[in-house]
Amino acid sequence: MTEDRAYYRLCSSCKRELIFGGRYYSCSVSTCNRAKDPLTFCSLPCFEAHVPVIRHREAWAEEQKAPSREQWQAAEREREADERPAPAAPRPERRIIGQEPPRPAGPVELSDQGLPRDILIVVSKLKAYVKARSGMNTSDGAMDVLSDIVREIADRAIQKAAADGRKTIMDRDF
């Protein structure tokens, strides 16, 4: 459900609240008007402050009227409903008449020759996760071990995809 708040949006410059049904300004440049997070301004000076920062060649403020609280809540409910993933429909099997279905291939021969031994883990993301989850720190030595575990899991997924006759690893292979 949508949150119950007393304002429509915040000014992108000064962070003042833009009230429901009130006047605000938006930038005429399309990249400033992204669907998820458009830039909104409470006054012309706030709009003018963003122009040199973003380096617009030519831009102007467009006066807008904020929706009422009820209109905003209805639009938020509709947006949330649209963002829910639809259940996946089973895909029909496609076959070309006269062609035999692919036979499962044998195991793929995996070679370690010339294989890079890079870290496969985004270190900063993992450390942030562990810190947020438990308050603990993470040693850099853990990244090599985790990368080896990821390699083993990826190798098993490669073999499973090959056994299914595919050359693409999919989520179901893990």
Q: What is the structure about, briefly put?
A:
This protein has 174 residues and is an alpha+beta fold. The protein has four helices and five strands.
Describe the structure.
The chain has a three-stranded antiparallel sheet with strand order 4-3-5. The protein has helices at 44-54, 69-83, 123-134, 141-163, and strands at residues 9-10, 17-18, 23-27, 40-41, 61-65. Strand 1 and strand 2 (17-18) form a beta hairpin. It is an alpha+beta fold. The model has no long low-confidence stretch (mean pLDDT 81). It folds into two domains: 9-83, no CATH class; 123-173, no CATH class.
Percent range for helical residues? 25-40%
Count the helices. How many? 4
> What amount of the residues lies in strands?
5-15%
Give me the count of strands.
5
Strand order of the largest sheet: 4-3-5
Largest sheet: number of strands, sense, barrel closure: 3 strands, antiparallel
Number of domains as seen in the coordinates:
2
From the N-terminal CA to the C-terminal CA, the straight-line distance is 34 Å
| Strand/helix succession | EEEEHEHHH
Give the key terms:
single chain; 174 residues; alpha+beta; 2 domains; 3-stranded antiparallel beta sheet; two-stranded antiparallel ribbon; 5 strands; elongated
